[in-house]
Amino acid sequence: MCEVFDEKSDFFASATATPPAVVPRLQRIAKSCSLESKTTLLDVGTGTGALLPFFKESGGDLAQITGVDLSAGMLGFARERFPQARFVQDDVLHFEGGPYDRVVFNACFGNLYDPVAVLKHVAQKLLSDGGLVVISHPLGRAWLTTLKEKDPRMARALSIITSIQHSTESEKRKLMYISNHIM
Ligand SMILES: C[S@@+](CC[C@H](N)C(=O)[O-])C[C@H]1O[C@@H](n2cnc3c(N)ncnc32)[C@H](O)[C@@H]1O
Q1: Which residues form a coiled coil (predicted)?
Q2: Which residue has a Cα nearest atom 14 of ligand 1?
Q3: 142 C-alpha to center of ligand 1: Å?
């Protein structure tokens, strides 16, 4: 996964990766995060930081944003473009920090090897009480459906996360919240 994105980082940093038609969608995604200047946000699979200008435009402060990504190539572009933000090269599954008021997965949830384990980690370690998880893709539902048909692993229902054992009541509440609001 990491090598794939290292190789593609030039493309993701280019204007071609964010065509004008996609801009209103990125604006909607950022707006759905309901950001204020003090809101802390973890951008999972931040890549080249494509969403950061939209977080800022919708009221967020780049200094409150942490981007985590596996790919050093992608992060190289993100660090150069947004020196005010913090970037960490890590697998989100092992990432420790926060807790954050918002945890955002844009165009990366389908890339996760074990999305259920990641959501559990988010609920246990990364999300603050009353926090919000946003899972989105700017290319829209139809495109994602095509992707799911090509790779059935991406069609796994998030509702299975509610059956995860050994969670505390607070974690269970967060996981229920995530599954009810996302799928
Ligand atoms: C298609 S890019 C999306 C980048 C960015 N979120 C955007 O909106 O343009 C997906 C990113 O997810 C990262 N990624 C995939 N699995 C990951 C994981 N387990 N932990 C951290 N980053 C991951 C990849 O390295 C890649 O940079």
Answers
A1: none
A2: 45
A3: 20
